[in-house]
Design goal:
By secondary structure, the protein is of the alpha/beta class. It has 13 helices and 17 strands.
């Protein structure tokens, strides 16, 4: 081969290698797959499971990833509390405050009635993630205050809500033990509020709806699953007993502590596994200990998590999906399904002829023979009107739809969310509608 031809070959080889490098950078830059399944070559926030330790977060803070202007490994830290004033008592550097009951919960219509404390709708979610500066490349870390460290649902409800809205678990992290464990590891809390630029991101980026209805049980889903009485369905209740020592307050009128749901009990075929078996003051036990405590039957492929108001159910949901069975759930062999309506919804659903033996303060506002009547699907059934006749059973007649919808038409909440900003509306120039925020 002549020297001229050899030089030409070398030039072509260098050019080819350059094209390969540019292509690789382009792939990484666009992040087509990196958000859903981040690789170490793209992001340094990939962890073995969704449960992280203070050392992980400390490293990300030291590396400048928290609230950074851009990049695939940017991080936001969300301090979730029932009382947001706890944020002012000290927080992790760069953390932002999120209200448990107003930003991660919402009263909505599902099945035959309007119900309290359900998953937020798309408009509420967009307002939240834009306020927090969350974009297509953000890893989200959930923590909670020292004061509320005994409330592990502050750490996990956000995880369940964001999973329902399609955020991949590779991008969601729960700080084990919250701020209390952060301090115990020798780290300081601060008092200044970070300046975080708003984002234009949406839960339906570029008009693509990602709602994971398979990870959340609607009321009609729960009725169908319990009615099936299948060994493939496991119902795990995070409350300590079938019938709680105190009655379940109505989740809309909870500010009036004399108003309660119609009856207490346990979902038929369910079993109690108190959430305290999984953690100590918000610090989760090892994956092996959690698997031993839950004792999920081998035959169960769908594990429905239940509690009083959906918050404790999110603790169980996270424990199963977020770390104890993390890889197994990824492989599709077992799925955790969060019932966020839980007993605050289930215990309201009695027809008008199912009110117990007492004639005082009768509940049961559904139509006689209603397909939504859950009393026949309940074990350890105890009517609140019988237990303490002086109790006021919440009057929710004004919330019940008339006529009642069929089971097939009772997924209004999830249908609304699935339709949110989807399909994408394009302009005359073919551009995506505003709010996508996830393009190259």
């Amino acid at each position: 081969m002549s020297e001229k031809m050899m030089k030409k070959s070398r030039v072509l080889l260098v050019a080819l290698l350059g094209l390969v490098a540019v292509a690789a950078l382009t792939m990484w830059g666009c992040g087509t797959d990196s958000y859903e399944n981040p690789a170490s070559a793209v992001t340094t926030t990939k962890t073995a499971t969704a449960l992280i330790e203070p050392a992980d977060l400390k490293q990300w803070i030291d590396e400048g990833k928290v609230n950074k202007a851009g990049g695939y490994d940017r991080v936001v830290v969300l301090q979730v509390d029932g009382t947001t004033t706890n944020y002012e008592l000290g927080h992790i550097p760069g953390a932002q405050s999120v209200a448990l009951n107003t930003e991660l919960s919402q009263s909505r219509t599902e099945g035959p009635m309007f119900t309290g404390l359900l998953v937020p709708d798309g408009t509420t979610m967009d307002a939240l993630i834009q306020r927090l500066g969350i974009d297509a490349n953000t890893t989200i870390v959930f923590t909670t205050s020292e004061t509320e460290s005994g409330n592990p649902w502050n750490l996990t409800r956000g995880y369940a809500v964001f999973r329902y809205w399609g955020f991949p678990k590779e991008r969601l992290k729960v700080l084990n033990g919250g701020n209390k464990n952060w301090k115990a590891a020798g780290n300081a809390l601060v008092f200044d509020r970070p300046a975080v630029a708003r984002s234009a991101y949406s839960v339906t980026p570029n008009g693509t709806n990602r709602v994971r209805t398979d990870l959340r049980a609607s009321l009609s889903d729960m009725i169908a699953a319990v009615s099936a009485a299948s060994t493939a369905n496991d119902f795990v209740d995070g409350r300590s007993t079938d019938v709680p020592a105190g009655p379940t307050p109505d989740l809309i009128d909870s500010s009036t502590p004399t108003k309660y749901v119609v009856f207490e009990g346990a979902i038929k075929g369910g079993r109690n596994k108190a959430h305290s078996l999984l953690h100590t003051a918000g610090k989760f036990k090892t994956a092996a200990e959690v698997r031993s405590a839950l004792a999920i039957p081998d035959a169960a492929t769908n594990v429905y998590t239940v509690c009083r108001a959906g918050n404790i159910a999110s603790v169980l949901f996270f424990a199963i999906e977020g770390y104890a069975y993390y890889n197994e759930a990824n492989a599709g062999t077992r799925k955790a399904i969060w019932y966020d309506g839980s007993w605050g919804q289930w215990g309201l659903l009695a027809s008008s002829d199912k009110v117990g033996t007492s004639a005082v303060n009768a509940g049961g506002k559904l139509a006689v023979g209603s397909v939504w009547d859950t009393t026949a699907l309940t074990d350890s059934l105890t009517y609140n009107v019988d237990a303490i006749p002086a109790r006021t059973i919440v009057t929710y007649s004004s919330r019940v739809l008339s006529p009642e919808p069929s089971l097939a038409a009772g997924n209004q909440l999830e249908s609304t969310d699935a339709a949110y900003r989807s399909p994408v509306i394009t302009s005359t120039g073919g551009g995506a509608a505003a709010g996508g925020g996830g393009g190259c």
